[in-house]
Amino acid sequence: MDLTPTEQQRLLVFATAELARRTRDRGLRLNAPEATALMVDALHWAAREGCPYSEIVESGLAAVTPDDVLDGVADIVTEVRAEVLLDEGTRLVVLRDPINGGSTR
């Protein structure tokens, strides 16, 4: 199977997000890559479902809470950027301070 670089990146995000979901389901707190992957995966799924941009952003911001992550992770993950595919084309989503409820740009 030949995958484009974008498809390879999406699979890596999904696999890391799955690991994060299993980690969280076991009652363990997430590290920075796991938390980031969960947020990006949520953005991709919302976009794929055809949600409006505002709902896509909200899904990313709601994916991880401060209680989900190890101490210090919220200080490390201050911005998350992901390109998502919408009906009108690819769009960059930027979440600022995403673990603490954040904002967008």
Task: Give a verbal description of the structure.
A hairpin with a 6-residue loop joins strand 2 and strand 3. A three-stranded antiparallel sheet has the order 1-2-3, covered by helices on one side. It is an alpha+beta fold. It is built from four helices and three strands; from the N terminus they run ααααβββ. It has helices spanning 5-25, 32-48, 53-62, 73-76; strands spanning 79-86, 89-96, 103-104. It is globular and about 40 Å long.
CATH class: Alpha Beta
Helix percent reads: 40-55%
> Taking all residues together, what is the mean pLDDT?
95
State the major sheet.
3 strands, antiparallel
Strand content: 15-25%
CATH superfamily: Urease, gamma-like subunit
CATH third-tier fold name: Urease, subunit A
Q: Note the total helix count.
A: 4
- Using only CA atoms, what is the Rg? 13 Å
Number of domains: 1
First CA to last CA: what distance?
36 Å
What would CATH call the architecture?
2-Layer Sandwich
Give the CA-based shape: globular
